[in-house]
Structures are given as C-alpha cells and as structure tokens.
Amino acid sequence: MMFIVFAVLALALVVGGLGHRRLSLCLIFLFFVLAVKQFLWEIYSPDYGFRMPWIQVQLMNDNAVSASTV
Amino acid sequence: MKGLLNRAAVVWDEVGPPMLYVYMLGMMAVIAGILTTAMTLQYVEGELPCPLCLLQRAAMLGVCFGIIQQFRHGFSYTNTGVSLIFSVFLLIVSVRQTLLDIYPRPGHEYVGSAVFGLHMPVWSVIIAVCLITAIAFQLIVWGGQSPSREKRVSHYPSLRAIARVLSFYVIAVGVINFVSVGVQCKFNQCHTFSYQLLD
Fold first, then answer.
1. Does some domain include residue B12?
2. How many domains does chain B have?
3. I need a surface site. Which of A33, B53, B59, B129 has the fewest CB within 10 A?
4. Does the pTM exceed 0.80?
5. What angle do CA A36, A37, A41 make, to 5 degrees?
6. Of the candidates A33, A32, A67, A4, which has an alpha carbon nearest to the alpha carbon of residue B189?
7. How many folded domains does chain A comprise?
8. What ipTM does this complex have?
9. Which residue of A has its CA nearest to B166?
C-alpha cells in the first residue's frame, strides 16, 4: 500500500513538473486521501484501537484533589 | 507623508514578487536538504525508515509540490493551501509517532540515530511547526499583494533557473523515494529490518 501511495505522489510531482496543473492537482488530492488512509491503518492497533493508553495519566480522585487544595 | 507611503507601495510592488520567490526557494531548499539528509542516513548509514517516517517524507514532498506549482503557474492561494494541508498532515503524523514512542515499551523505541540529541519524529514536529509558521508569514506579507500573482518567476531569469534546478531535484527525490519504497516494502507492509525485494 505504501508503494501505491509513493507511486501516486511521484506521478503527481512528475505531471506537475511537466505543467499539467489540473491532472497533477487531482493526483495530489488522491495521494492525500491514500496517505491519510495509510496513516490511520498504520496507527490502528487491534488491542488499543486509536487510543494511546500508555500515555494516559491516572485520574486524580476527589480525596487527592481535596488534599492538595488544603 | 501620503507621498512617502505611495512611494513605498510602488517600491514594494517592484521588490515584493522577487522576494516572495526567494522566500519560497528558501523553504524548498530547506525541505530538500532535510530529505537529502534522511536519504543519506538511509543509504549510507543503513537506517531504514519506518512507515510513519516514510509518510513524513511524503508529506514534505507534498509541501514541495505546492511550492513547485507556485513557480510553474504563479502565486495562488490554491498552491499555498496544498503546502499548508501537507504541513498540517506532517504535524499530525510526527506528533502521533512521537507520542507512540515517548514511553519506552518492548518494540517501541525511536527508530534511527539522534541528530543533535533529537530523533527524527521530534525533528519533524519542529519542522512542521516551522513550515506552518512560514506559510502564515508568507500569507501575511504577500497575501494581499496583487503583483505577486501577476509577475511569474519567468520575469526573473536567474530565479527561474534556480527554481527549475531545485524543482527538478525535488521531483527526482520523489521518484527515488518511490523506487526505494518499492525495494523496501514491495506490495507488503513496510518494516525496518531489511529491503524485502533483496531478501
């Protein structure tokens, strides 16, 4: 899939460099959609989904909050 | 006072467009330098890029696409928007990767060696913020100036020559990366252990 993402990007760059504006803009838009899809696929985890539990902070309970404000 | 302001406006209309093209050339040269450094680390030091690193390279090439279009077809907000959206994409990908590896866990550590003490995704966050700031600055200074849209880079032969060479270099970098991804990943999921086509 990454190969296709880079293929569309390279094609957009070459077509844009040759001066075909509309076609290159269509290709760069297609590249953007594919890149976003690839990004979401890469970061998805079967265990965590899109969450990142390893950086979640522990919620302070009410006692801790009231103790810290005293 | 009014005459002085009018005179300043006339001078700015003259020097504004070439300054804009120099500014954009500078942006593209910096991105080309970053991509060249990343490719040097890959091919010389043998540090294969991770999938999110590859997406960050692609986002930087997307920013360059917008700038190349500025040189090819003149200044427009469409091209600036293309560069801006890929800058934001670069920021999202690099922040996510930084957060992914920020807490050491088995199989999750920063890929590659540190440059000046910072790893590539952290550098990418800084680069993305700088790019977004640079584009905002570009719109503030040149956004309302109509001569920038009328005078193309072809009005300035030396700038046009530099823009052509740099654009060609960036397009070549894009094509080399496409071939490189083909060798590294084939049609499979990318990993950083080896070039899958050469296994």
1. no
2. 1
3. A33
4. yes
5. 115
6. A4
7. 1
8. 0.88
9. A17
Of B52, B65, B186, the CB nearest to A28: B65
Region label for B117, one of left (φ > 0), alpha (ψ between -120 and 50) or beta (otherwise): left
Minimal CA–CA distance to A5: which of B61, B170, B64? B61
Query: For B106, what's the count of Cα atoms within 13 Å in the CB-facing half-sphere?
Result: 0
- Do the domain assignments include residue B33? yes
B7 CA to chain A: closest CA distance, Å?
37
Give the pLDDT band of residue A57 (cuts 50, 70, 90): low
Cβ–Cβ gap B69/A54 under 8 Å: no
Please choose, from the candidates B104, B100, B88, B106, the residue with its C-alpha nearest in 3D space to the C-alpha of residue B52. Answer: B100
Tell me how close the Cα of A62 comes to any Cα of chain B, in angstroms.
27
d(CA B191, CA B189): 7
pLDDT per residue as tens digits for the range B80-114: 999 999 999 999 999 999 988 888 777 677 666 77
Residue B110 forms part of a structural domain:
no
C-alpha distance from B116 to closest chain A C-alpha (Å)? 25
Biggest CA pair distance of chain B: 74
Domain of residue B65, residue span? 19-104+115-198
Decide if B63 contacts B69 (C-beta within 8 A).
no
**Which domain, by its residues, includes A52?**
2-69
H, E, C per residue of B63-130: HHHHHHHHHHHCCCHHHHHHHHHHHHHHHHHHHHHHHHHCCCECCECCCCCCECCECHHHHHHHHHHH
